[in-house]
Queue: 2 jobs
Job 1
Amino acid sequence: MNKTKKLTLISLLVAQGLVLYMFERMLPLPFITPGAKLGLSNIVTLVALYMFSFKEVLLIVILRVILSTLFGGSLSSFLYSIAGGLLSFVAMYFVKKLGQDNVSTIGISMIGAVSHNIGQIIVAALVIQNAMIVTYLPILMVAAIGTGFFVGITSKYLLPYIKRIYG
Amino acid sequence: MIILYYVKITIKLVILEMEEKMKKLDKIIVASFVIIAIVLGITFKFAFNKDYDNKYIEIYVKGQLYKKVSINDNKVKEEIDIKTDLGENIVQIENGGVRIVDADCPDKVCVKDGFKDKVGNVLVCLPHKVVIQIKGQSSENEVDEVSQ
């Protein structure tokens, strides 16, 4: 892949992540638990993980978080997003590296969803200075299995098409 | 009936997908998540679910104790207004429990979170940095058993 192609694809992925983020904001909250989301933007991170190196995916994640804060967020929501986004990306990267052929996008996206929740809970506990918020984690984990499964399947079907165009 | 049929087909497809597409490590990840979630859930539930003679709530704003109110079962309705520079939350106490009835934050997650009456439960309003914690005291030892 040459430099221009790479640049274009990175910007495209960032833009897609933004669109998914905005789309998700419009949906009514599908779960009763506060903090549970579909995590549609994770599709973009997952696809990028299979196409680029560590540095480039990191760039995509950070750009997406900054831009989505500009489009509809506040400083505190930026803190939650960046903590969740970075932790989930690092966790997914290592699971993919360690798992090699034994792990598919489904398992990776579940890891990503759970570590995203953990990152956000840590920041929330620091912001409100109260550790009791950790009691939300079990419910969020169960929700993450469901959302991670569908995000994983979506990425699995998406990857061959993107690879055919840009491979 | 038709809806049920579609639901059935969807479930079948999901199961097929799970069997075909998921690899070894995927299944381990799912299993370990389920186990961890159940263990954590049970731990949290039992750690705080003892018999308490005296239940009270502690309201924290920005990590500092704002107010302490007793919420025993026979209490009549009581409303507390939490006003800070970050915003306003109205807390209602009734039937030995507590709920946030109104807040001027944009998402109102704390209002949707509803009614809580078990020791160890928390209500959180992130934008206003408000935490309401239900605590208990048993008569045998006068020490607060819920640690932070």
Job 2
Amino acid sequence: MPGRLKIVLQVAAVSVVALLLALLGWQVFQKDKKPDLGRAAPLFTLPHLGSDEELSLASLRGKVVVLNFWASWCNPCKGEAPLLESAWNRYKDEGVVVVGVDAQDFDVDAQRFVDNAGITYPVVRDRHGSTLGHYGVTGFPETWFIDARGRLVGEHVVGPLTEEDLERNIKIALGEPA
Amino acid sequence: MTRWMVAALVIALAVVAPAAASEQNPTLPELERELICPTCHESLAASTSPIADRMRAFIRSRIAAGDTKSEIKAKLVDQFGESVLAAPPKSGFNLLAWVLPLAGVALAAGIVAVLAYRWSRSRKPEEAAGPSANGRFHLDPELERRLDEELARYDT
């Protein structure tokens, strides 16, 4: 094999290995990386639970969004669902929307959960879990708060919400003194 | 010739028949090995998460209902996405995941074969020749010179 060709092949082989390692590193670094507070909330469009109709986060611009990630098999989610429903009923006239994102779940289980908890706020189904990585969700429940300009504000609550968490962060998102 | 054809047919049947039986009458353990828990990303067989328990219950109910293995997997993919499969499906872009490793192995084997052939051809004639007519091996001239010197010193 001519010396020049050999060197070209060696450089190509090393480059391919370096590229694969860089891709692996990037993938590991990006996975479940939380978005920064104050930055734009990652957009998504997902079907409503039990329907083909879709909800786009962009369509809620101008409203405060309480974005709650849950699954029917998650016990703490059962405890916080009534708090979210109560907040939705209390604040919807002030331009606040609670959006439930159900993931890693069966449709039928999610629907049963919604019926049993008496949830009336919009619930979307993330069948492929595509939003989880974008929002850095590593378990259920987790909640983000989005202001009217579409920015992530307040606290990213990991675990079940309390009444105080909800009140404080909704007020922050509304721009009211907490 | 006929004997070879019968042997090939028997082998083909031995491979295909269990696969067909598994497709028509899947068992929970084999599906557990072919599926991944969506929350912990472990094999469903190893996972103890709540959703893994729920998936096992779903699989049992679908087996009881007479679903084939492909139908059960398709229903789980519909609920959880393709990441629930331990191995990517052999279609579309995912086919690359099956073809590329085989192509890589074939390419590597080809490169090794070519290099081995070139290496064997490029050996020095005296290395390849082995013992000469009088049964002695050819030595490197420098080594031979040193050996002669040592022997001469020994003789004196």
